[in-house]
């Protein structure tokens, strides 16, 4: 989990695990057969908003459709659904990626 604040905003969090980050690196940044990293609609859960990222897991196939299943990625928990907050999500994901890369060296 990555916690942070943007100036003038209450804290927000990105909840993720290493598998999600590894999958996103493998599937969403593969130029030959890449998956799109999408951000689902922001859900209002009381005083918090939740924005999940989703991607297609290209290593698996759904038996019924013979297509890659959609997996949930990192989840952004924040105080409002403004552009600034959503932009902060992308920036934090990029920061998380850099931290993951540095830890594996």
Write a structural description:
By secondary structure, the protein is of the alpha+beta class. The protein has one domain (2-100). 30% of the residues lie in helices and 29% in strands. It is built from 2 helices and 6 strands. It has helices at residues 18-28, 83-103; strands at residues 2-4, 12-15, 38-39, 43-45, 48-56, 70-78. Strands 1, 2, 3, 4, 5 and 6 form a 6-stranded antiparallel beta sheet that branches. A hairpin with a 7-residue loop joins strand 1 and strand 2 (12-15). The longest helix has 21 residues, at 83-103. The mean pLDDT is 76.
Q: Roughly how much helix do the residues carry, as a percent range?
A: 25-40%
Structural class: alpha+beta
Number of strands: 6
List the total number of helices: 2
- Give the domain tally: 1
Which descriptor suits the 3D outline? elongated
Question: What gyration radius follows from the Cα positions, in whole Å?
Answer: 15 Å
Low-confidence stretches: none
Distance between the termini: 20 Å
What is the arithmetic mean of pLDDT?
A: 76
Tell me the major beta sheet: 6 strands, antiparallel
Binned strand content: 25-35%
The sequence of SSEs as H and E is EEHEEEEH
Write the layout of secondary structure elements.
Blueprint: E1 2-4, E2 12-15, H1 18-28, E3 38-39, E4 43-45, E5 48-56, E6 70-78, H2 83-103
Antiparallel strand pairs: 1-2, 2-6, 3-5, 4-5, 5-6
What are the defining features of this structure?
6 strands; 6-stranded antiparallel β-sheet; 105 residues; 2 helices; 30% helix; alpha+beta; elongated
């Amino acid at each position: 989990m990555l916690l942070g604040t943007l100036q003038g905003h209450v804290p927000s969090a990105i909840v993720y695990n290493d598998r999600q980050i590894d999958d996103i690196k493998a599937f969403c940044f593969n130029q030959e057969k890449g998956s799109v990293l999408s951000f689902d609609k922001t859900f209002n859960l009381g005083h918090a908003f939740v924005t999940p990222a989703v991607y297609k897991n290209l290593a698996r196939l759904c038996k019924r459709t013979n297509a890659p299943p959609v997996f949930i990625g990192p989840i952004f928990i924040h105080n409002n659904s403004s552009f600034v907050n959503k932009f902060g999500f992308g920036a934090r994901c990029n920061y998380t990626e850099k931290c993951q890369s540095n830890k594996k060296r």
